[in-house]
Amino acid sequence: MKKKLLSVMLVGALAISALTGCGSKETASDDSQKTGTTTEADSSSDAADTSDFDNSEMINVQSREDGSGTRGAFIELFGIEEKDADGNKIDNTTEEANITNSTEVMLTSVAGDEYAIGYVSLGSLNDTVKALKIDGAEATAENIKAGTYKIARPFNIATKGDATGLAADFINYIMSDEGQKVIEDNGYISQGSNGAFTSDGSTGKIVVAGSSSVTPVMQKLIEAYKAINKDAEIELQESDSTTGMTAAMEGTCDIGMASRELKDSETEGGLTAQVIAMDGIAVVVNNSNPMDEMSSDNVKDIFTGAVTTWDEVAK
């Protein structure tokens, strides 16, 4: 009887040990996921987890401020801006939109909000957000060149009258083989060049001001130019397209930057514009959003407030 009892106790202990072992393995697996330890399943894909995305949630629309060239081009290209009976342009962006005042803030806002949607310059796009295909076309420089991705606009610089001195020399650099290579290398589309660059050695200081979308590539152009003309001093002021054009008209900057076509009032104010590059506008969502593409009509409906939740977006 004692032997039988000992045998039963031993079997029970072994069963408990086996169960405990199984539990330990499961816990270890859970812990490895919690602590970020790579498992076989984890290593098979680097894609963001979209499984918890709730399609019934409200769409958090992110737009740019009034005066932004990116906003101006975006609402025009998607038909969000329309003319009234008197021919006046009306911006129909939903009043529920959160307004961001720069490219950097837009990227941060969308990256930090699972249910957000916004738009940025293609050249400023990074992996903190996901760019959607529009009407089946991916937002790439190659597709803009091919004409399949149609959400594109010009990058303009403008001066009051003809540029002279250092401003003229810098503009000559921008439009040279070397300057347009900087533009291409940073993900924008060259508009052709004026040949190889030779500086005239101009010195002094100029101010370049305006669009936050143009600013990143302008910073690269300034750095490359100053490597050639070391005596040049160029101050870069980031704001928006309208502010840049106003500053150029008023003479508070030497070169204005706009990420759109110039308005009639700006050319009538004495500004001479030059396209330095073409740029796409990428419609972006959070990386956890399972959606990969939209139609142009989808985008318009979202940004005008006709569609307010993710499950309303047409497939």
Automatic annotation (TrEMBL):
UniProt keyword Methyltransferase present: no
Check the record and name the Gene3D superfamilies matching this protein.
Periplasmic binding protein-like II (3.40.190.10)
Provide the alphabetized UniProt keywords.
Lipoprotein, Palmitate, Phosphate transport, Signal, Transport
Q: Where does the record place the region Disordered? A: 23-67
Which InterPro entries does this entry report, sorted A to Z? PBP_domain, Phosphate_ABC_transporter
Say if the entry is tagged with keyword Ligase: no
Q: What is its main location?
A: membrane
Q: Provide ranges: composition bias, Low complexity.
A: 35-48
Q: Which residues form the signal peptide?
A: 1-20
Where located? Answer: Cell membrane
**Which residue range or ranges hold the PBP domain?**
56-178, 199-312
The UniProt entry lists membrane topology as: Lipid-anchor
- Function recorded in the entry: Part of the ABC transporter complex PstSACB involved in phosphate import.
Q: Which family does it belong to?
A: Belongs to the PstS family.
Q: How does it assemble?
A: The complex is composed of two ATP-binding proteins (PstB), two transmembrane proteins (PstC and PstA) and a solute-binding protein (PstS).
The name this protein carries in UniProt is Substrate-binding domain-containing protein
**Species assigned in the record:** Roseburia amylophila
